[in-house]
Write a structure and sequence with these properties.
Length: 156
């Protein structure tokens, strides 16, 4: 019995270490084009405001639901000085433009056509959220809208 408790303790310590270090650290900078061919860098926002990065595709049904949520939350995010950057992964500009127009999305969409930014953030799939605080540190990684994390950022 003691042996199993020790193994369980080691497992939970390892899990705790992974969870507390998985989000820590500086967010890698990147530069992508938006749908208006304007260059956007994550570093443009450092020491100014927090940023929500949302990685998505047009074919993903879960992404579509998250996009609907983000469209509803966009104004509140802007009021709280939190920038939303929706990063489409691996699809052509033409396809993404048609998708965005058809859904009347009201936030900035960036194109990661090669998947380079997705790789530097070690993402395994979509939808994926990464929240970067105004200091440039990753404070959240997940597949759901981080409402509670954003409340904490707003409070600071």
């Amino acid at each position: 019995m003691r042996k199993y408790l020790s193994l369980a303790g080691i497992f939970f310590l390892a899990l705790f270490y992974f969870l507390t270090t998985a989000y820590a650290g500086e967010a890698p900078d990147f530069q992508l084009l938006d749908l208006n061919d304007q260059k956007v860098s994550l570093s443009d926002y450092k020491h100014k405001q927090a940023v929500v990065l949302f990685f998505w595709t047009t074919w993903c049904p879960y992404c579509r639901e998250e996009l609907r949520i983000l469209n509803a939350e966009q104004q509140d995010l802007a009021k709280d000085a939190i920038t939303l950057l929706a990063i489409n992964v691996g699809e052509s500009k033409h396809k993404v433009e048609n998708f965005v127009k058809g859904r009347n999305l009201r936030f900035r969409v960036l194109l990661d056509e090669t998947g380079r930014v997705t790789e530097i953030y070690d993402l395994l799939g979509v939808p994926s959220y990464i929240v970067v605080n105004s200091s440039g540190q990753i404070v959240f990684r997940g597949s759901h809208f981080p409402k509670e994390m954003l409340k904490e950022l707003k409070g600071k």
